[in-house]
Design goal:
Layout: H1 5-71, H2 75-102, H3 105-134, H4 136-165, H5 170-195, H6 199-226, H7 229-258, H8 260-269, H9 271-349, H10 364-390, H11 405-434, H12 443-537, H13 542-584, H14 586-634, H15 639-653, H16 660-663, H17 675-686
Helix pairs in contact: 1-2, 1-3, 1-8, 1-9, 1-12, 1-13, 2-3, 3-8, 3-9, 4-5, 4-7, 5-6, 5-7, 6-7, 8-9, 9-10, 9-12, 10-11, 10-14, 11-14, 11-15, 12-13, 12-14, 12-17
Amino acid sequence: MKLTIRNKLVLAFVLLIGFIIIVFVLARFSLSEMNERIGYISNNTAAKIELAGQINQDIILLDRDLGNIIISENVQEMKNINQSIGRKKNEMNSRLVALEKVLDTEELSTLDLFRKKWDEYLSLLDDAVVLAIQNSNPEAAKLSMNEAGAFYAEAVQYLDETADAVRSNPSALYITNNLLDAMNKIIRAEKNIIFVTTDDKMSLYNEVTRENKLLAEKYADELSAQLTGSSARIFKKFEEAFNKYLEINKEVLRLSFLNTNEKAFVLSTTTGRDLHDECLSLMQQLSMKSRNQLANDKVVSEKSYSTSNMYMIITIILSILLSVLIAYLIINSIGKSLNEAKRVATDVAEGNFSTTINITNEDEIGDLQLQLKYMVERLKNSADLAKRVASGDLTISDYEKHVKGDLDEALKEMIERLRMIVGAIINGADNIASASQQMSDGAQQLSQGAQEQAASSEEVSSSMEQMSANIDQNTDNAQQTEKIARKADADIKESSDVVTETVQSIETIAEKITIIREIAGKTDLLALNAAVEAARAGEHGKGFAVVASEVRKLAERSQKAANEIGDLSAASVIKARESGKKLELVVPDIQKTAELIQEISAASSEQSTGAEQVNKAIQQLSQVIQQNAANSEEMASSSEELSSQASELKNVVGYFKLGNELSGSNSFSLSKNQNSKTQKSLAKLGDSSMKGVDLDLEDNAPSSDNFGEF
């Protein structure tokens, strides 16, 4: 296939577009893979870390609520804590379901073990909550402090009054003191039972209480038997208050022996603590696996990014090198070819038709060089023909088949007219030789010839005007040639600028890809920070929300950079097409330049020939006019001299070679007594194409070696 400039440019930009498409595909593939990786991390790995962290937090919060409900003494507060425990259990069940969806097979086995332990813990938690809600220890303490304490104080008061009443009775006073001592032991044992935590100690203090109750009953009976009157009535009130205290004491002991708070505490700190720790450990194992998977995902993402980045950089470097190489080859080829064409055009303009042109390309510039070569050959043929005519050879017969253009037409017309003129001169010389005796009779005709010669001078002036017009045309053509050359140069420069802009667009793509790389690094870092922040933030998870927002922003920037890559790729294609169109304009401009150069050369040759003819015609015209005037005056006395001049004229005109077909075509047969025919012949000579111009081609006339270009 012929590699024209158009095909070269098309091939170059197809390759560039191909590299751009490769870069775009690599970037799109990398972005897609990165997006999938980020989606997997966000929806799977990060979700597992987040859910595991939240579940760990739920476990800790449930354990905290259990402790709070155990130590709480407010019923409403315990109800609120119990409701909070229920909500957290539901939330945790939802998170366990969500976590199960994103776990793999190995992790599911760990989750199953966790569920088993967690169910055991929840069962224990429910038991502990039930015990804690019963709140027997605080209730016993409250009952002991309030109602029991009030009745006990009332009984002691009445007993003191009784003691005051029986101070005169030592036996009764002794019994009263013993009764008070038994009562003190009962209430101390009651307080001890409330605050001890083991069943053994509670049983011990309960036995003390039972023994002292028996003693108190005994002492009360003995004292009641000794009292009378007002002291008996006071003691009766004591017995009523003390009996009420004993009833409440039974309830205090019952609540104390339930010991629900302590049992709940024991459950939460022994078996419950073990199950709690095991659940935390299992969930931390899942979290650690997810963190390891996250680290592995990061390594895979970084490796994928590095590989894609390396491929894109290599592709971009290759495309830049290829574009620079193609631009250099095309510009260098066009520059060399145009310089060669410029050199040939300069040589032709200076008249050097022997110059040669080296055709190195097979494109439009090569076609231009081929046409220039053809033009030089045509001009060289025309110059050779003019040289042959200048050397006197008018026998040329094969030039008609090469006649093309104004220059060849002018040469053809010049040769034909010269042949007619020379033939007429030869015939005229013969007639002059044969009619030398009638020269005196032709003085009048010679005078008429002088007038006709003046008319020829006018024709010469007209030719000069035509020549001036040709010169003006050459000037205009030269100006147009300069404008077109400048325009072609500007188009080539503009094409070079477009190629430069294409390279700049590719560099811009590299910059945008750098942005994508930064975004990828930040996205990985933010994803890791999101997981860490979510684990630390607690139930609110504010840190994770902020990091998630940053991830979305970086994703948007990645999308924007991808769009800009597409826009730059489209802009590169448009610029490439514009560059192609501009370069296509160079070909018709250069062709037009070649045509104008051809016209300039033709006009220059025509001007040179016309100038030579005018110069010779004007010189000969002056000589002929002088000669005709002299002949008119001396015709009568110089017949012999005229005959001699006629013979000499024939010899001089013999310098031109007319060929056999014209040597006698215009010959005249005149006899000495044919005066009328001679006069007609002279009149015919005066009516020739040159209107009687007499060319004095003497041996010392200027030769063709002194020919100068006009």
